[in-house]
TrEMBL record:
Signal peptide (UniProt feature, chain positions): 1-27
InterPro entries xrefs: LPS_export_LptA, OstA-like_N
Keywords: Signal
GO biological process: lipopolysaccharide transport
Organism: Endobacterium cereale
PROSITE patterns (alphabetical): PROKAR_LIPOPROTEIN (PS51257)
Example of a GO MF term: glycolipid transfer activity
Domain Organic solvent tolerance-like N-terminal: 45-158
Name this polypeptide is given: Organic solvent tolerance-like N-terminal domain-containing protein
GO cellular component terms listed in the entry, alphabetical order: cell outer membrane; outer membrane-bounded periplasmic space
């Protein structure tokens, strides 16, 4: 089974726009996630209870009910930290280069009928790698469910790898009714 466009990522236009946005069940599960490519053509709406910008640390802290929406993709978390680069740059200048984004306090990603939950997440801009981790990472695409403890997605290629929790195996539940009709 191929996950079509699972968790369409958040893009990285100006400023904080980077904030978004069948496997081998013996040890690890690898698959391609079609549609996992960055795009810079849709606006991003970010909401949180509080925003603190620390230009000296080159960080922006979003806390409390963080919600990031771009197109059909929504990300929710308790906290989001954006780390940016550049001498003398400020996140409010509109041209800040984002280095990393950290998501904490239960992460929920939704795109259409596809969902993922994890304890935390990290997006690294340089490698365009998105990693979800936790006691249990759950991905669902309609009735199909994938469980492990770490999901790594290479955004440039759409390649995804689901790693099991310690002393367990990746768990996959596939519904035969979800197979495309030919």
């Amino acid at each position: 089974m191929t996950l079509r466009r699972f968790l369409t990522p958040m893009t990285v236009p100006a400023a904080l726009a980077a904030c978004l946005m069948a496997g081998n069940a013996l040890a690890q599960s690898s698959t391609r996630m079609e549609g996992m490519a960055l795009s810079n053509d849709k606006p991003i709406q970010i909401e949180s209870d509080q925003l603190e910008i620390q230009d000296t640390e080159k960080k922006a802290y979003f806390t409390g009910n963080v919600r990031v929406v771009q197109g059909a993709t929504t990300m929710r978390a308790g906290k989001m930290t954006v780390v940016y680069l550049g001498e003398g740059s400020s996140v409010t200048s509109g041209n800040t280069q984002i280095d990393k984004i950290f998501l904490n306090d239960t992460v929920h990603l939704t795109s259409g009928q596809q969902n993922a939950t994890a304890d935390q997440g990290e997006f690294v801009m340089a490698s365009q790698t998105f990693v979800l981790t936790g006691k249990q990472v759950v991905l669902s695409d309609g009735p199909n469910v994938f469980r492990g403890c770490k999901l790594t997605v290479l955004m440039k290629t759409g390649e995804a790898k689901l790693t099991p929790c310690p002393n367990t195996r990746v768990q996959i539940l596939l519904d035969p009714k979800s197979k495309p009709q030919q």
